[in-house]
Specification:
Largest interface: A-B, 41 and 30 residues
Helix content of chain B: 55-70%
Order of helices and strands of chain B: HHHHHHH
Structural class of chain A: alpha+beta
Largest sheet of chain A: 6 strands, antiparallel, barrel
Mean pLDDT of chain A: 81
Distance between the termini of chain B: 24 Å
Number of helices of chain A: 5
Order of helices and strands of chain A: HHHHEEEEEEEEEEEEH
Shape of chain B: globular
Radius of gyration of chain B: 16 Å
Radius of gyration of chain A: 24 Å
Largest sheet of chain B: none
Structural class of chain B: mainly alpha
Oligomer: heterodimer
Low-confidence stretches of chain A: none
Number of helices of chain B: 7
Strand content of chain A: 25-35%
Number of strands of chain A: 12
Number of domains of chain B: 1
Helix content of chain A: 25-40%
CATH class of one domain in chain A: Mainly Beta
CATH superfamily of one domain in chain A: Rod shape-determining protein MreC, domain 2
Mean pLDDT of chain B: 83
């Protein structure tokens, strides 16, 4: 017993060093899969507040750019106005109304909520975006985020009362279902941690016909994004000899460098679908 | 007591500078400017080694808090804090410089060369360990090596500039050893 105490006293520094290293690595490993609730709740309360103060000041320098983007988005929306489309003449033709319910809201599956980016990074291999909306705005984990131009940005992974943390597409654990717009093949979108403008689409079989410049959109298979949100365009098709699939490099449509405002996509069916998935997984 | 107070202020300023100035600068994906661990390099000679490691952990954990991913910087800072005394013992040429001066600097380490080595080795260790932890799933040796080298070079220059801007007057305390 005495020897143990002597050993600890002699090598106290080494033991403390090993303990702190192992503790840090434990934090890294445990956080990347299931986010650490204590860390998110306690630390983000402090850093989130400081970050949003900083952001308030910083925003003044981007007002011009933000104005431009708003005008462009507005233009987009004007083009979608119902009053701009002429309705086919139904007075002379007999038409049967097949809709059972004519309320618009029951058919609306996705709703959008704006949010301000409080902090963002692109240079790390693990990049998170923090938004100034949280549980009080009914945000949940798994909701998708798009930028004002309608390009995919990421998925919410952690929510506390006032802030939400988004795993951006530039994250080594990010897996988003992507689809080739032209031919319709679906694959998984990854990031290799190098260039913040280049994403990788994997899982597309070699039978697919791909050209440079093809658009990649979300597949709508997950509850996070509806079908047809733009992700990027193909820049290079790499023929992997070892596998049956292409490795497709694409330029991301989102500019991650200057995100200031984003939209959160709220899916009305999200809870139902995830609950069903859990149930099926539990049965197996 | 004034030393502790000075170091607390230094801690806050360095963390804020790292988070709100250096982290906002996007140079290239290969180059990340890191300066915050200069706090560990500037701590007094006569600090308890376990205390040094705990301070290192606290510093790293604070930076991690702003990046929403705990562990990476904490691990790197603890390693730097653990190795620091060994490097100082190796590099100091003057007998009893630790007791004559308060903090490591060009003057107290006895010349430019030992101090540059002191900074250079610890910068390399910090960046290498940090990028290794960040990228061990990618297993790309060339990328890791180039990123470590370029970032370390930038960190080294940043530390030198900081050293020139904020000259710390190291008083010669005593000559009785």
């Amino acid at each position: 017993m005495r020897n143990i105490f002597l050993f600890i006293r002699q090598h106290f520094n080494l033991l403390l060093f090993l303990f702190l290293q192992i503790f840090s690595i434990y934090l890294i490993v445990s956080y990347s899969k299931y986010h650490n609730a204590v860390f998110a709740e306690s630390f983000n309360k402090v850093t989130g507040k400081i970050n949003s103060r900083y952001n308030n000041i910083n925003q003044y320098f981007h007002l011009k750019k933000m104005n431009d983007s708003l005008i462009r988005v507005n233009e987009n929306l004007y083009n979608k106005l119902k009053s701009d489309f002429s309705i086919p003449d139904s007075a002379t033709q007999l038409q049967i109304d097949s809709l059972k319910l004519d309320s618009f809201s029951t058919f609306k599956k996705y709703s959008y909520l704006s949010a301000r980016v409080v902090s963002n990074s692109v240079t790390n291999q693990i990049n998170y975006i923090v938004l100034d909306r949280g549980k009080k705005d009914n945000l949940k984990e798994g909701m998708g985020i798009i930028d004002p131009y309608g390009n995919a940005v990421g998925i919410i992974v952690g929510v506390n009362q006032d802030y939400a943390i988004v795993m951006s597409l530039l994250h080594k654990d990010s897996h988003i279902s992507g689809k080739l717009y032209k031919t319709g093949e679906t694959g998984t979108l990854l990031w290799d941690g190098k260039d913040p403008e280049t994403l990788i689409l994997s899982g597309i079989s070699k039978s697919a016909k791909i050209c440079k410049g093809d658009m990649i959109i979300t597949s709508g298979f997950s509850t996070a994004f509806p079908l047809g949100i733009k992700i990027g365009s193909v820049t290079k098709v790499y023929n992997e000899k070892a596998s049956n699939n292409f490795k497709i490099f694409c330029k991301s449509a989102t500019n991650f460098y200057n995100l200031t405002y984003v939209y959160i996509i709220q899916n009305k069916d999200q809870d139902g679908v995830t609950a069903m998935l859990e149930k099926v997984k539990g049965q197996q | 007591m004034t030393g502790v107070f000075k170091n607390i202020i230094r801690f806050v300023i360095i963390v804020f500078f790292q988070v709100f100035v250096l982290d906002k600068i996007i140079l290239h994906q290969m180059i990340t400017p890191y300066l915050y661990f200069i706090f560990i390099l500037w701590l007094p000679f006569k600090i308890n080694r376990s205390m040094l490691m705990l301070i290192g952990f606290l510093l790293g954990y604070t930076i991690d808090g702003f990046r929403y991913q705990p562990g990476f910087h904490a691990a790197a800072c603890v390693l730097v804090a653990y190795i620091r005394p060994f490097i100082i013992n190796l590099l100091i040429s003057q007998q009893g410089a630790e007791s004559n001066y308060n903090e490591p600097s060009i003057k107290s380490m006895g010349g430019i060369t030992p101090y540059f080595f002191y900074i250079g080795i610890l910068v390399l260790i910090h960046n290498a360990w940090l990028f290794l932890l960040e990228s061990w799933q990618f297993a790309d040796v060339g990328y890791f090596f180039i990123k470590t080298m370029l970032s370390s070079l930038l960190s080294f220059m940043l530390i030198l500039v900081t050293e020139m801007l904020f000259s710390r007057n190291q008083k010669f305390k005593t000559n009785t050893i």
